[in-house]
Amino acid sequence: MKKPILQGLKISNFFISLIVLLLSTQPLFSQVQPANKRPAGKADSKKKDENKVVFPLYNGVYVGADLFGLGNSLLGGDFISSEVSIDVNLKNKFFPVVEVGYGKADKWQDDGGIHYKSSAPYFRVGMNFNTMYKKQRENHLFVGFRYGASSFNYDVETTPLQDPIWPGQTSNPDIVDGIWGGSLPYRHTGLKGSMQWFELVAGVRVQIFKDFMMGWTVRKKYKTSSSISEYANPWYVPGFGKYGDSQMGITYSLIYKLPF
Predict the structure, then answer these.
(1) CA neighbor of 133 nearest in space, from 90, 183, 80, 194
(2) Which of 8, 113, 136, 256 is most buried, by the most CB atoms less than 10 A from its CB?
(3) Calpha distance 81→251 (Å, rounded)
(4) What is the pLDDT along the chain (260 residues), one digit of tens a residue?
């Protein structure tokens, strides 16, 4: 009779020990999470990081030629200009740019009989900021600034009138020299002038085929300093436009991205 009792006690002790072991290891199991059940926030952030576009520092060099200045003369404008620009793509966000051009004017003012002539090179340096820098395509919407300068020579002369009574020519009574006084004609050639100016720029660049693009810019120009002759003001400043405190300008360019 004692043997079954002892066996019952052993079985009871076995089950009691098993229950204690399970209870003691339950917190450990509750702390372990399956690998495929991660918090939703971490998974979403990881996907966003994988889809985020990261541009290197250097993304290419662009060379552009302005066509608006050439077309302006063909459409009857008073001056002509040609311009080449070079800019570098940094992080697809910042575009330092250099613009070099040549401007020329040969203008007769019918109302006053004044002839103005000038031609000279000019240059501008500045920066564009691409507001669409997160896009992978070569489409840019940008704002920026330029600082420009030009040193030039210019000629100013007036047209004398034919004397209706006596043979020969006489001065134009409608034009008076504000410095020396008296009626004109006068003729001054090789006058020296220079100007520096600041520009606020807004524009767009659109990819049309592979590495070829076209772009437009609108510019508001402000004169910062100038040096002109005492005899006459320049009518036209290469790169700036008509002489004055401010001017509006437009460029239309064809652009090629160099293959390196």
Answers:
(1) 90
(2) 113
(3) 11
(4) 444 444 444 545 554 554 555 455 444 444 444 445 555 555 555 555 555 678 899 999 999 999 998 887 777 777 889 999 999 999 999 999 999 999 999 888 765 568 899 999 999 999 999 999 998 888 999 999 999 999 999 998 876 555 455 555 444 544 555 544 444 567 788 999 999 999 999 999 999 999 999 999 999 999 999 999 988 889 999 999 999 999 999 999 999 999 87
Is the Cβ–Cβ distance between 101 and 69 less than 8 Å?
A: yes
Contact by Cβ (8 Å): 254, 67 = yes
161 and 77 co-located in one domain: yes
68 three-class SS? helix
Tell me the pairing of strands 246-257 and 58-66: antiparallel
Domain count, the chain: 2
Cα–Cα distance measured from residue 199 to residue 68, given in angstroms and rounded to the nearest whole number = 17
Q: Which domain holds residue 19?
A: 2-50
Report the DSSP beta bridge partners of residue 20. none
Hey, what are 154's tokens?
């210019």
Q: Is 158 exposed, middle or buried (0-12, 13-18, 19+ CB in 10 A)?
A: buried
